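[Q] Does anyone have a clean structure-token version of this?
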Amino acid sequence: MSVLAVVSLVATLRAQTKSRPDALIVLNGGTNVRFTEDYEGTVKYALRASFPGDAIIDAIKNRLADQGWTPSNFSAVDQQLPTSHLDGWGKYLDGDDLVHIWSGEWNKPDGHNVLYSLSFRFTVNDKGVYAPNDRLEVIGIVMSAEMIKAQRKAHGTQRSQ
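[A] Here you go.
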């Protein structure tokens, strides 16, 4: 094996074994799982679930509580914006689709934040009615206190001291 091949193999193995934040939860049945190093770490995947996916939300809530995360009623970046812990499911139109979205956040005493966004995409059926499906998209994002501060500054939502 050439030196270049060995260096490449070592880099690949390091990337595969790098620890991910425990708050990036992949529930049983998750498919198309993708982890990235965006923010402090992200996970994206799909699950089969019926709307409104209460069992999925409860499973994420319970796992995060077991890790010491506390639910937040307001966004860490825009503290005027309520999370789904207060408002429940929201919805918006995306082209011809109706997207139902649940977005909750949790905090740790050290200032870290985790956000979970769950969404169901309803399409119009042959009768012109939005039809639910069983595909739930899950996105989890972990941010450090420093990253939240930078996001607040970038979005103009930084609190005055």
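[Q] Thanks! Anything notable?
[A] The first helix runs from residue 3 to 17.
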